[in-house]
Specification:
Keywords: Hydrolase. This protein is α/β, with parallel strands linked by helices. 32% of the residues lie in helices and 21% in strands. It has an 8-stranded mixed β-sheet, sandwiched between helices. A hairpin with a 2-residue loop joins β25 and β26. The relative contact order is 0.05.
């Protein structure tokens, strides 16, 4: 039975606590450390802790996780106002497990070792939110029911006052970073609840002298309706809290299991809910929820751009300099760091604005001085001078009129000379700065990001640190931007490229990243949620500036991103899967009713469900190139609805294309392209219509010549589509032909599946041979401009197609002059099939060696499942005297290997 009205829910709570009280009675001069993070928590029974504390809840608690006792507990030896290792109970002497327990544990596990976490928990079972409103608290206490009075007495009748009292003690040692609330059951149906919570929050901010922009409030949902929560209807009201209280966040309770009363979470539910509080807080602190990896801050924390009056601040000034390039006196804004000393020499960051800005744009929109001041206070940045010039190098350099006028756009390019010949010499004369390239950085937003890449990478003798935030289309094409990648590898200390995932200019960043990736130039490619605005650019400055002028570890660059890049195999507008810079993959699957979800990429990965019913996982590094995968929902293998589907594994399966710096040979390029034609023909052999994919090379349509043909076969569980879609055969040939590395040819991609029987037995192989000779070849030779003789025919296949090639090609060497066998070989344990083949070869060795000009065998290394069979087969060939060539390319039994096989085999043909 579900109660979703205010009166029935409150009556249940009142009756429960009347009973619970009787049951309980029957059982009964300072230095603030910025690395000690303190969290206040308050609310009613679920925050107080109802579930029984189990053995696991008292084990393995890091002493970096502390609790400030809010009441005296002689039973546990705790005195009010003192800190202790956070062994439960954390609220009062006889309370139970609470979300705060696992909030703290998860924070500690994912924060740097230097950071400690302290919690203060003041909660009263069954109370309304009004109890914590200091202007209404006394009235509430005076009319409180008898079963509540004992709890109130432990707080001297003023829980809010006790919370503030303890918080002030905590502030002598640490810094309050956030507030946790779990309350609402007793206010079920109260639409004014968000406003009432805001009153409490605002009072805490005022009474503790806290900045509301720096201290978020995290509010947990009541037991969810998916767990038959009796007060679950309150969650609709809790969900509106962020509309009333800007810096507040709702923590979902979906899937968090409950006690039989359906009012309280059980121990498992508290552990999960506490983890969710922690995950949100970690993201607000800028850290990844790392799951036992080294803690890493990947984004700016909440409040990073807010003025902190309690720390030293730098100085902003406007300077003027003579520009011989422009022929005028120009302005720039300069930031000098806190404690600036003219006797000390500083590195310099030149920070550039966008097309609609000037030397004041960063100052007006980005608060760089506040961001940097806060970083200095944390000790996470090197002292530096920051110069913010006007990047529009012309006499009238104002951002007025038509900012896209040709002369104004050209002025952004002219600024390179102004920067190098006028501004930098001026700064180095006026300020005490280090003048070598290792102590000079350049970065900018939008148009300024393009300038930074153009000028920085174009003048590596001047800049060792280069950053672009949302680079604009003025960014040079990669080969012009960085014509000598090897020089960049030697000279660059850091190359940073960042952008919002919904920025309309993101393709500029992607293009540059792809080029750098292919050429092994170390760089950070940082994608975050956002558009083309200062939210993204401020975060870019926060992250970039912490790398500057100190040793960097290029091996860690791939970890610095929030989002990955959407896979090219995603369906249109699908955000996931996303590929991280190190080729790990993030999967997200919406399946709220599922009990278990996995991704099968050869290795199975268990996904974790979040509070919204979305399942998440980040994989290990995935093989480059094309990979099949399946989505397993409660054990049923299905195609991922976010991915393109491919016929493979004997069914429609999902596939993901992983970036491959060695995959230039199948990249889509601006060259002449051939066509893939899909044709149907009636097979008299199979007595059915069959489909064939035919690649015709560039120029085929207007040519009068007859082309040679490669008959190209797929593997088991695939069909005629495989080489065209998974294999990218057309692009491989287009590129080879354009580079004059392969002869123009027709490729006929045939369906090797014969009436549903697998191609691993004599009957199936014979059926395929008949189909090829009597059906496919006659159809191709009568419908396409191809030469119809053995010297112009080749036959190749992968895996099952490799067996079909061996069977048909060797027996019919008078029909095929070229044979390619990819990841295949006669099975050593099937002598019934293989021995007759070897006997045929032994008896016809001279003919086979004479007819077959190229007998090419390849494998995907030792991890290829056909590797041992192939080795045994080749040893047999050696004994018999069959001539062949062998090639090996690591990658196993996969499409990346077979693509490379075609790339290597095709240039050998028809010469």
């Amino acid at each position: 039975m579900i109660f979703d009205n205010k009166n029935s829910c409150m009556k249940l709570i009142t009756n429960f606590f009347a009973f619970a009280l009787l049951f309980s009675i029957a059982q009964k001069g300072y230095s603030q450390d910025p690395d000690f993070h303190v969290y206040l928590s308050f609310g009613q029974s679920n925050m107080e802790g109802y579930a029984k504390i189990e053995a696991q809840d008292k084990m393995g608690i890091d002493d970096r996780f502390q609790v400030l006792a809010a009441v005296n507990c002689p039973e546990t030896g705790r005195k009010m106002g003192n800190w202790y290792t956070a062994v439960p109970p954390l609220c009062r002497c006889n309370t139970g497990l609470t979300p705060v327990d696992y909030f703290g544990r998860n924070l500690i596990a994912n924060l740097p070792k230097k950071i400690k976490v302290g919690v203060i928990n003041v909660a009263v079972g069954g109370c309304k939110i009004e109890l914590f409103d200091k202007d209404k608290s006394a009235e509430y206490v005076a009319t409180a029911p008898d079963w509540m009075k004992g709890m109130l007495k432990e707080y001297d009748g003023n829980p809010y006052g006790r919370l503030v009292e303890m918080a002030k003690i905590a502030q002598k040692k640490g810094v309050i970073k956030g507030i946790l609330i779990h309350q609402g059951e007793s206010n079920t149906g109260d639409t004014l609840w968000p406003e009432k919570v805001k009153i409490v929050y605002d009072n805490l901010m005022k009474d503790l002298n806290l900045d509301p922009k720096r201290v978020p409030l995290l509010s947990g949902e009541t037991v969810n309706e998916d767990q038959n929560g009796k007060c679950g209807s309150m969650n609709k009201i809790i969900a509106t809290l962020p509309k009333t209280l800007a810096n507040s966040y709702v923590i979902s309770s979906k899937g968090c299991t409950a006690e039989p009363d359906f009012l309280h979470f059980n121990a498992s539910g508290y552990r999960e809910l506490g983890k969710r509080y922690a995950q949100k807080m970690l993201s607000l602190l800028g850290y990844k929820f790392s799951d036992n990896e080294v803690p890493l801050r990947v984004q700016a924390p909440v409040g990073f751009d807010q003025l902190n009056a309690g720390i030293p601040s730098g100085k902003i000034e406007t300077i003027t300099y003579e520009s011989k390039t422009v022929g005028s006196i120009r302005k720039a804004t300069v930031y000098t760091p806190p404690g600036f000393n003219k006797k000390k020499k500083y590195p310099v960051l030149y920070l550039l604005h966008g097309i609609g800005g000037d030397e004041k744009e960063w100052l007006n929109g980005g608060n760089p001085q506040i961001i940097l001041d806060n970083l200095y206070a944390e000790g996470t940045i090197e002292p530096m001078i920051v110069v913010m010039p006007n990047g529009r190098a012309m006499k009238d350099d104002s951002a007025t009129g038509n900012i896209m006028a040709p002369d104004k756009v050209q002025a952004f390019s002219t600024f390179e000379k102004d920067l190098l010949n006028d501004l930098i010499p001026f700064i180095e004369k006026k300020y005490p700065v280090l003048k070598d390239r290792e102590h000079r950085a350049i970065a900018g937003l939008s148009m300024g990001g393009g300038q930074s890449l153009n000028f920085g990478l174009g003048n590596l003798d001047k800049f060792a640190w280069v950053g672009a935030f949302s680079a604009a289309p003025n960014t040079k094409i990669p080969k012009e931007l960085l014509p000598n990648p090897e020089e960049a590898k030697k000279k660059l200390k850091l190359l940073w490229i960042s952008c919002g995932d919904n920025d309309w200019l993101i393709d500029n960043s992607k293009r540059t990243h792809n080029y750098l990736y292919k050429n092994d130039v170390p760089h950070v490619y940082y994608i975050e949620p956002g558009v083309h605005d200062f939210k993204v650019w401020k975060n870019g400055l926060y992250m970039f500036s912490q790398f500057l002028f100190r040793p960097v570890d290029t091996s860690s660059f791939s970890k610095y991103t929030i989002l990955g890049t959407q896979a090219e195999t995603n369906i249109r507008n699908a955000k996931y899967p996303q590929i991280l810079p190190d080729n790990r993959v993030v999967f997200k699957v919406k399946a709220p009713e599922a009990a278990k979800v996995q991704i099968d990429l050869g290795k199975k990965y268990d996904l974790i469900k979040d509070g919204e019913g979305t399942w998440n996982v980040t994989t290990d590094v995935i093989n480059k190139g094309f990979n099949y995968y399946s989505l397993l929902i409660d054990g049923v293998a299905v195609a991922d609805p976010s991915s393109e589907s491919f016929y493979g594994m004997g069914r429609m399966a999902s596939g993901i294309e992983i970036p491959n710096k060695e995959g230039e040979f199948y990249a889509l390029k601006d060259i002449p392209h051939g066509d893939i034609r899909i044709k149907k023909y009636f097979s008299k052999t199979a007595n059915s219509w069959r489909e064939i994919y035919v690649y015709t090379p560039p120029g085929y349509e207007n040519s009068t010549e007859k082309y040679p043909v490669l008959y190209l076969l797929h593997g088991g569980g695939e069909d005629q589509r495989g080489w065209a879609t998974q294999g990218k055969a057309n692009l491989i040939l287009d590129n080879l032909i354009a580079d004059n590395k392969a002869k123009p040819m027709v490729i006929a991609m045939i369906d090797g599946n014969m009436g549903g029987s697998e191609g691993f037995n004599e009957n199936a192989l014979k059926a395929f041979e008949n189909e090829l000779k009597s059906g496919a070849i006659p159809f191709v030779e009568s419908n396409f401009k191809v030469a119809a003789d053995a010297k112009n025919r080749a036959l190749a296949g992968l895996s099952m197609g490799g067996l079909q090639t061996l069977y048909t090609g060797v027996k019919n060497s008078d029909m095929f002059s070229y044979i390619g066998v990819f990841s295949s070989g006669w099975w050593a344990n099937n002598k019934t099939l293989s021995e007759p083949q070897y006997e045929f070869m032994k008896n016809n060795t001279a003919v086979i060696n004479f007819n077959i000009k190229e007998f090419w065998i390849s494998m995907g290394g030792k991890e290829d499942i056909a590797f041992e069979n192939c080795k045994i087969m080749m040893s047999k060939f050696d004994q018999i005297g069959i001539k062949y060539k062998y090639s090996e390319y690591p990658g196993g039994h996969t499409w990346p290997v077979w693509r490379h096989d075609l790339f290597m085999f095709a240039p050998l043909l028809f010469k």
